[in-house]
Automatic annotation (TrEMBL):
Its EC number is 2.4.1.-. This is Hexosyltransferase. InterPro entries: Glyco_trans_8, Glycosyltrans_8_dom-fam, Nucleotide-diphossugar_trans. It comes from Urochloa decumbens. Pfam families: Glyco_transf_8. GO terms for molecular function: glycosyltransferase activity. Keywords: Glycoprotein, Glycosyltransferase, Membrane, Signal-anchor, Transferase, Transmembrane, Transmembrane helix.
Length: 416
């Protein structure tokens, strides 16, 4: 057994009835052959469709095709190619029904258990504001992150989620979230990608160059005035502790709080052109504390101080330098380091067990760092839902799987 299998037991979420979270069982209309293939059951053995769905066509030794059978097979193959892995709707073909993919995102995810506040939750000042980005490609990760937060906090009804999206179908994304979390207090904000697109420089990974990856720079400009403090989280995290402990950290006058990693090679985040330019690298001289790496996927922000200090403009200025001189490689992280390294409130490392997605090039498996864990973060190229679907998971991916709300499905053929 992998060591992480023991952790999976500890972190395994439970329903409101006290039982463990369960993946959907296969449809009762489905059975499996000896090879493990899903096959529709035949309720009446003497009334089988033209090519007998209880035996896959490629397994039959002899078979007679008529025109309707050939057409049905052709349409079935097209359905599999175009729509595997989505919720299904129906289309009639002759004496049979082909259930094919639906475009509704809401049907792709299961509804989460209901969560209520415990007696210790304050009725007036207990609100916790959490900001995340919302994107169709990462929706599955977002769902898991939200479920993990609600699962492990004593005050789930006090959570307010703010989602920034560039997706034209933002209503569809929000509808999917509301379908899985009917009681969730969520607000969706449209982030205009043109605001940052001309400021982005090419990095080592295409995903890091997307405008939404820079939305965290504009949080304070996007959130309403009543949000004075916000906890920002990436979509590839799972929280296994009460998020209130992180959200309420004492900022001690700082704008940001995050775990720091002073053992990391800080200089590697910038190019030789940066370190050879005395005026540019001079920005790190005279700071209150040594400059250490921190990951921007988990941050607590004083929104009021950010606005007052004009920090959006300061980050943008370094992005402009990058366009001219190529002083760093990694997307939106380095400009944050240039502005805030040595000036943040350091919090316990347990709040960002990062790097579980491997490096930014190959995404190779990595193990857990020693010590207690409150938040797991699959930063890097590898994402747990993709590796699990590809049947090439890393051991740490099994810690993410219990929070997955994705409704596994595939097109099937049934009698009409």
């Amino acid at each position: 057994m992998y060591p992480s299998a023991l952790l999976t037991f500890a972190f395994f979420p439970h329903h409101s009835d006290g039982g463990p979270a369960r993946l959907l069982n296969p449809s009762p209309t489905i059975s499996k052959d000896q090879g493990g293939h899903h096959l529709p059951r035949c309720p009446l053995p003497r009334r089988q469709p033209p090519f007998g769905p209880c035996v896959p066509p490629f397994r039959r030794q002899t078979m007679s095709f008529n025109n309707s059978g050939i057409v049905a097979i052709a349409i079935f193959i097209i359905v599999i190619i175009l729509g595997a892995g989505h919720a299904v709707t129906g289309a009639r073909v002759g004496a049979m029904m082909i259930r094919q993919p639906s475009s509704s995102l809401a049907h792709m995810f299961r509804e989460a258990p209901a969560f209520w506040n415990g007696p210790e939750c304050a009725a007036d000042d207990g609100r916790v504001d959490i900001a995340m980005t919302l994107d169709a490609n990462y929706l599955r990760g977002t769902m898991a992150a939200v479920l993990s937060i609600l699962q492990h906090t004593a005050c789930p009804e006090s959570m307010v989620f703010h989602f920034l999206t560039t997706d034209a179908d933002d209503r569809g994304l929000a509808a999917a979230l509301r379908a899985s979390f009917p009681s969730l207090d969520l607000r969706v904000y449209r982030f205009d990608p043109s605001r940052v697109r001309d400021r982005i420089s090419r990095s080592v990974r295409q995903e890091l160059d997307q405008p939404l990856n820079y939305a965290r720079v504009y949080l304070a400009d996007t959130l309403p005035a009543d949000v004075r403090r916000v906890t920002y989280l990436d979509s590839d995290v799972v929280v296994v502790d009460d998020i209130r402990a992180l959200a309420s950290v004492d900022l001690a006058g700082h704008v940001l709080a995050a775990p720091e990693y002073c053992h990391a090679n800080f200089s590697s985040y910038f190019t030789d052109a940066f370190w050879s330019h005395l005026e540019l690298n001079g920005t790190f001289r005279g700071r209150r504390r040594p400059c250490c790496y921190f990951n921007t996927g988990v941050m607590v922000m004083d929104v009021v101080k950010w606005r007052a200090g004009g920090y959006t403009r300061r980050v943008e200025e370094w992005m402009a330098v990058q366009k001219r001189r190529r002083i760093y490689h990694l997307g939106s992280l380095p400009p944050f380091l240039l502005v805030f390294a040595g000036h943040i409130r350091a919090v316990d490392h347990r709040w960002n067990q990062h790097g579980l997605g491997g490096d930014n090039v190959e995404g190779r498996c990595r193990g857990l760092h020693p010590g207690p864990i409150s938040l797991l973060h699959w930063s890097g190229k590898g994402k747990p839902w993709l590796r699990l679907d590809a049947r090439r998971p890393c051991s740490v991916d099994y810690l993410w799987a219990p929070y997955d709300l994705y409704r596994y499905s595939s097109p099937v053929i049934e009698e009409w």
